[in-house]
């Protein structure tokens, strides 16, 4: 078999590149994925109770990029959805990101008033500050707040999720969940926030339904390598695996997902409840809040238990953003640069903590380079 492009991985990165190359360049593309389905980690399916669940953890679409939004809108209609998250702190469920509303759930009116006033005076109403930045503040009352939020919201969760403290990771990791000097109770603040109306898998089916695209599922790249001839390869799996761990493994963090079905309409009040300080899991998500199934009389939730990544045993869900890993990544990037017909992209291929929209943006950018030749 001969194709123009062989793309390894049918997630957002692989599907976007396949669609663009097949449609715009009129080239023959074969997409292979070792899983038995397309969609990568965004794959969704109906469980045995008829609840639409995300097999690899909750996926909520949000972006600031009109380009990405417009592109994906060719393959799906949307349902507006503003994700809401709470964290259990000292037995109370507080809004997350930590905001002025969270202050009021935890502290006396007098203390909350004082901290609100100081936060606004210091940063301005509407500001978003990372916890590591807030910890640098000198004012004693804001120091108290920073230490409190660090200890009760970030430290335990981060230790569970990564096996590391917040300051041992790139500051960009904890900055994903800023402290909000406002009463905004949405988890994300992006312009576009929505869920694909018929789910992610339906979106992927439309993306890949082109006469120039063939999709081969349940096939590892290693198995097809000798069978298929191709001009160019786009690899969206783990870069270190591609090179046979030549420079040692790039660290990843994995998760175990535990699904539970309950014979009652709702399990919790919001989409996700985080448990920074108790239990072995980090968060519980109830899918019905995210999807279009509020009418169901029963519900399914998922618990996320972080664990070490072991190749062959579990999945490399998260690259670990920290300096020493960048050094190893640079060695692999050097290897990649030597290969003129192989391109790497995606959360695993670039070893970058991309959200879905960032994976699509990266793929669209790479497509432009491919199209220029
Ligand atoms: P992937 O989706 O990982 O796809 C890569 C594919 O390559 C996989 O299907 C894999 O099977 C295949 N593959 C790898 N190696 C090989 C090989 N050797 N041979 C054949 N196939 C191979 N993003 C958001 O925007 N919002 C969210 O709410 C959100 N929640 C998330 C929650 C969790 C728990 C996780 C883990 C991620 C979340 N993300 C979220 C991020 C999102 O999953 C990624 O941005 C997106 O899936 C990246 O797409 P990708 O195509 O680069 O990688
Ligand atoms: N985080 C935290 N406590 C929380 C939520 C997030 O400490 O209650 C930190 C933690 O380090 C986490 C990071 O912020 O890994 C990013 O959180 P996000 O919800 O964006 O993680 P993801 O959805 O990608 O797993």
TrEMBL record:
Cofactor(s) needed for function: FAD
GO molecular function annotations of the record: UDP-galactopyranose mutase activity
Top-level taxonomic group: Bacteria
Keywords of the record: FAD, Flavoprotein, Isomerase
Record domain UDP-galactopyranose mutase C-terminal: where: 153-353
Spans through the membrane: none
UniProt keyword annotation of Membrane present: no
Pfam families recorded: GLF, NAD_binding_8
Stored NCBIfam families: UDP-GALP_mutase
Family of the protein in this entry: Belongs to the UDP-galactopyranose/dTDP-fucopyranose mutase family.
Name of this chain's protein: UDP-galactopyranose mutase
Gene: glf
